[in-house]
Amino acid sequence: MISRFSGSTSLGGGPDSPGAASISPSGASTPLGADPTPLGGGPASPGDGSADRGGSHLARLARLLADDTRATFCLALLNGQAWTAGELARYAGVAPSTATEHINRLIDGGLLVEARQGRHRYVQLASPDVAQLLEELTAHLDPPRPPARSLRQATASAALARGRTCYDHLAGRLGVEITGAMTRTGLLQQRTGFALTDAGLAWLTETLDIPAAELRESRRPLARACLDWTERRPHLAGVAGARICRYLMEHRWVDRIGSGRAVRVTRAGEVALADLLGIDPAAIA
Amino acid sequence: MISRFSGSTSLGGGPDSPGAASISPSGASTPLGADPTPLGGGPASPGDGSADRGGSHLARLARLLADDTRATFCLALLNGQAWTAGELARYAGVAPSTATEHINRLIDGGLLVEARQGRHRYVQLASPDVAQLLEELTAHLDPPRPPARSLRQATASAALARGRTCYDHLAGRLGVEITGAMTRTGLLQQRTGFALTDAGLAWLTETLDIPAAELRESRRPLARACLDWTERRPHLAGVAGARICRYLMEHRWVDRIGSGRAVRVTRAGEVALADLLGIDPAAIA
DNA sequence: CCGTCGCTTCGGCCGGCGCCGAAAGGACGC
DNA sequence: GCGTCCTTTCGGCGCCGGCCGAAGCGACGG
After folding, report:
1. Rounded to an integer, what distance in angstroms lies between the CA atom of residue A128 and that of residue A109?
2. Over the stretch B24-51, which tens digit does the pLDDT of each residue have?
3. Which of B145, B144, B169 is nearest to B157 (CA)?
4. Residue A259 and residue B19: Cβ atoms within 8 Å?
5. Which of B:208-227 have CB within 8 Å of A?
6. Which CATH architecture has domain A59-126?
7. Cα–Cα distance between A50 and A32 in angstroms, integer?
8. Which CATH number fits domain B64-126: 2.60.120.260, 3.90.180.10, 2.120.10.30, 1.10.10.10?
9. pLDDT at position B18
10. Do B17 and A46 touch (CB under 8 A)?
């Protein structure tokens, strides 16, 4: 399926560009004259034209997201699904050729992977790790919420604030509310960190029918906090968060709205959540 | 002291991606034959110059780190201390005037704060949140470790890999080892998330003499995982991580090496760590 | 087999931005 | 007061990179 990997499974950037072997990360040469100061001094020794104290790696990653169009692509892909090149182009409002170039860069940079099917090129985030990276970044930039300028936007933002997916788990008021309810009912504890309690572990296997083996064996953390973007409070992510989200979707207690990230709690879902976790339907309406 | 803030206390402005409509990708359904871009003026409508689906906010943040020099500055500041403009300039190997411009951008972007003293301009990371952001980013980019090209570099990298600070807590083999020891001795549990145990909480207040009130009242999480950059395993961060680091430094069980992030365990420290947590000195030598 | 459609390649344009050096502005110390 | 030192401002240079449109390629589907 997925056919094109960048050299590394993770970010670091695979020199695997389609065209040529160009690459050559950031200005390696540094012709600027000089050079001075061969390390005579202490640790923070100045000079050394070929500095590169590791900043170039961070910068290379940041550069991938430093463009409005690429950032928009990544945010769109945070819904966890695959999009075609054309869809992304229309979504971001750029020409198809422009989209192609951006997609290539994102793939080469290891943020995306692709799967070609016929004349379509599907891309999606390379891994849950990448999704986590994006979550973390967006969590660090939100505070002041800008008011929507049109009714459409207002409606859309309200829907997103109410409930949405964060790649593979639930977020928004819905996600935070579920997390809060789990904490109140002793399934989760946030007092000394962020972890499921033993009761919480039992709840996942017994009530949600999730195989204990799966919970144990995953390489990903069972539970971790993901700072909610609209609520400014943590919600549950990690394997447990993903399984809960999947469970609710499978039972149609939560439905996606359109193709974006927004979700809605169904009638049956309200009943189920009140029943399972004692969540007041009004809190997530 | 700190005199210059960017407009926002935090980073960027709030995004918002109206995920309302657009198209549904997903190989399965593929309803896309018909009707690309319905909904007049809808989300994915091209030509609409005002696209901006929130990507611009993410991009603005990323742009701050998308330059080698700025990224180098930020990484340097991750040692948690304040640096002068000139120190940063020499460290990164750029002219003082260039450094000034970068520092201005970082301050305006909310990543740094400054304190002017006489003819010096001291800057440091704006908050632990920013430090966390940087940690998260660096954690997501390391995998392939580039070999050092010179003996100096090799020595420096080895020192960093052995032990360093990660803004306000310990990282490197030392940090991971402490975290591991705490887990083995039942002070910390990572089975169902990442949190201190009750024994761990008691250990902090009793053995380390940290006021219980301080642990309770902090806005920051008591314990959180920070993915270690060289070890590829989590180490302890959050209030507990910071206090442990401070405690070890105050007792001179751990010393800074030079002005960078590297630290070293002292003789007395080896004894103390073996005594407190059963850490084998060889493991952190 | 041919038209359509999605994607890609290529050339060209343009703006942004990172860099520097020279010169100026303050602080400090003598 | 007068050098010295740290920092800033300004002008100028050059390149990178994002954008588009036109043309080409390959997959479908009649």
Report:
1. 16
2. 333 333 332 222 322 222 333 333 434 5
3. B145
4. yes
5. 221-225
6. Orthogonal Bundle (1.10)
7. 10
8. 1.10.10.10
9. 31
10. no
